[in-house]
């Protein structure tokens, strides 16, 4: 049996939308990186370490062409590849963070944009550290039901609510020009928004976003981000649990699927210099018919389109 015959008898590994599984970044402008990590500190809702593979599996329902908005193949134009998952042990937080940062840094060093699939929201900190090393003056666009910029004690320094506290304190991002958008709902502590603003961040709650309208808020973001590298963190709990039930911390009153997709398309139209995308908090054990994972795959697709638009790869002759 020849090599080609053997290939016909085996299925390749499951990758995002069937892109090549490889560590080779030659010719790639973006690369998927799975980050199968969660802190495991929630009393009863643990499982987002399984998120990367669930997103990949559900991406099989996605198609490469959108005849109305993007009648081209963005995966091919970006040369997208899937580098698999970071090898880590979730119980070892510091070691895991070091491995996540190192894996992302390898992608950045090749001049390629990481598209990271979490994992819980804490993965953003090592990913931000890796990006800031290459892109000083970076700003953050964090789309989430929670600011994840809470205060902490040394005995619980790294958790799912402190990643952007550390990002500001370490000056990994320019907080005064960074935004938390879509925040809402109940919290365990008092003064959470005041704490976030004290770090320098800007907040646009979900209530304010819907009252002002996407165009107005995105216009403000465009002005604040002008000329700066942008880190985009998309927490799937910004969606309402009715369309994304399988997330770490669901909160009622979020985006419908259509609203979230429309917001992403408005963001793509700004043509920001996005240097990293992370999509986090898909928790397969709590999902219903893989709804959150499938929606996360669509979020990733819209993020890939945004990268194409920024790089002028969305035209008919690109």
Description:
By secondary structure, this protein is an alpha/beta fold. It has a single domain (27-310), classed as Ureohydrolase domain (Arginase, Chain A). It contains eleven helices and eight strands. The chain has helices at residues 3-7, 51-58, 74-78, 93-109, 124-134, 163-169, 192-198, 206-212, 214-225, 257-269, 291-310, and strands at 30-35, 81-85, 113-118, 139-143, 179-183, 202-205, 229-235, 273-280. An eight-stranded parallel β-sheet has the order 2-1-3-8-7-4-5-6, with helices on both faces. Helix 4 packs parallel to helix 5 (124-134) and helix 5 packs parallel to helix 6 (163-169). The chain is globular and about 65 Å long.
């Amino acid at each position: 049996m020849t090599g080609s015959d053997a290939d016909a008898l085996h299925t390749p590994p499951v990758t995002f939308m069937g892109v090549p599984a490889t560590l080779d970044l030659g010719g790639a402008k973006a690369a998927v990186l799975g980050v199968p990590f969660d802190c495991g500190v929630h009393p009863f809702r643990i499982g987002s370490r399984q998120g990367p593979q669930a997103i990949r599996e559900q991406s099989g329902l996605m198609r490469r062409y959108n005849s109305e908005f993007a009648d081209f193949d963005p995966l091919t134009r970006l040369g997208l590849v899937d580098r698999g998952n970071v090898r880590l042990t979730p119980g070892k937080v510091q070691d895991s963070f070091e491995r996540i940062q190192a894996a992302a840094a390898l992608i950045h060093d090749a001049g390629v944009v990481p598209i990271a699939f979490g994992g819980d929201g804490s993965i953003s900190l090592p990913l931000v550290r890796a990006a800031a090393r290459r892109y000083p003056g970076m700003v953050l666009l964090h789309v989430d039901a929670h600011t994840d910029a809470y205060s902490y004690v040394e005995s619980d320094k790294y958790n799912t609510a402190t990643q952007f506290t550390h990002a500001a304190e370490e000056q990994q991002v320019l907080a005064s020009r960074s935004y938390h958008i879509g925040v809402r709902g109940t919290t365990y502590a008092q003064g959470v928004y005041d704490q976030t603003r004290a770090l320098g961040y800007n907040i646009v709650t979900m209530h304010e976003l819907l009252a002002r309208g996407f165009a107005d808020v995105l216009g403000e973001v465009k002005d604040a981000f002008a000329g700066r590298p942008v880190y985009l963190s998309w927490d799937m709990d910004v969606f309402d649990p009715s369309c994304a039930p399988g997330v770490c911390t669901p909160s009622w009153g979020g985006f419908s699927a259509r609203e979230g997709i429309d917001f992403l398309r408005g963001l793509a139209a700004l043509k920001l210099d996005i240097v990293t995308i992370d999509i986090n908090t898909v928790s397969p054990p709590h999902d219903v018919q893989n709804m959150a994972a499938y929606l996360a795959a669509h979020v990733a697709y819209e993020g890939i389109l945004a990268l194409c638009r920024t790089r002028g790869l969305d035209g008919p002759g690109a």
